[in-house]
Amino acid sequence: GFRELNKEVQATVRSELKASYVADLEAPDDVGLFRSLLENERHNLTMIQDQLSEQTNTVLPVLLDAQRIWVVGQGHCVHLAGLCAGALREIGLLAQSIASDPLEAATSLKGLDANDLVIGFSLTGMDLDVANAIRFARQHGAKTLVFSASAVAAAALAAETTIVCPGPTQTDTPSFTGLAAMIVVLAAAFTARYPDEAKAMKESLQQSYRELLELQAQSSSELDIEELWRQF
């Protein structure tokens, strides 16, 4: 029908207009350059919104069901993996970032099964160790999720579920804005979708922290500083 065709044409035009954005690297001053580059990052986030697929509907249930969550990155994505694991722990999920090199990954991922989830981050497409960790996880029955700047990166192709976070730039510096934003969205979406579970997990975390603080206060009060110094 004409209405459906009209909507498709409008969607195509919007997509082409978004894809045609080019940052002004020749801005006359630094304020203009910063604004132009920031606009490029906002453009990239809009592209992520447009490219979200039905696969996204599987992400939160997998997070909820996972007994253990491993997050792996390589290069720049090492830090994103650590940030993601930390964000998931903050909402009470058992998440841990791991190194991607074969020996460290083998040590961390031994004993994987269907109750585990392995999350990978891929920025440049050269992070082949991440792709291998994802393949290893799938072979052992674990669930796999990859956030990737490219749909054809090795890690993206290896994963059961992939969310593409494009970050084109006109410079030699790759953009990880989309990948970082998805960490925030992942944690926020989980707490929004499963508020009771998230609250219970958070309360358990707070109780553990409270007990550790009490033990710290107790050990500090019992410590004889002068005697300790004499021993050394």
Describe this structure in words.
- With 232 residues, this protein is α/β, with parallel strands linked by helices.
- The chain has ten helices and five strands; from the N terminus they run H-H-H-E-H-E-H-E-H-E-H-E-H-H-H.
- It has a five-stranded parallel sheet, sandwiched between helices.
- Helix 4 (77-90) runs parallel beside helix 8 (177-193), helix 5 packs parallel to helix 6 (128-139) and helix 8 (177-193) crosses helix 9 (195-222).
- The chain is globular, with a radius of gyration of 22 Å.
- The protein starts with a helix and ends with a helix.
- The mean pLDDT is 87.
Topology:
Blueprint: H1 2-19, H2 30-51, H3 59-65, E1 68-72, H4 77-90, E2 95-98, H5 102-109, E3 116-122, H6 128-139, E4 143-148, H7 154-158, E5 161-164, H8 177-193, H9 195-222, H10 225-231
Parallel strand pairs: 1-2, 1-3, 3-4, 4-5
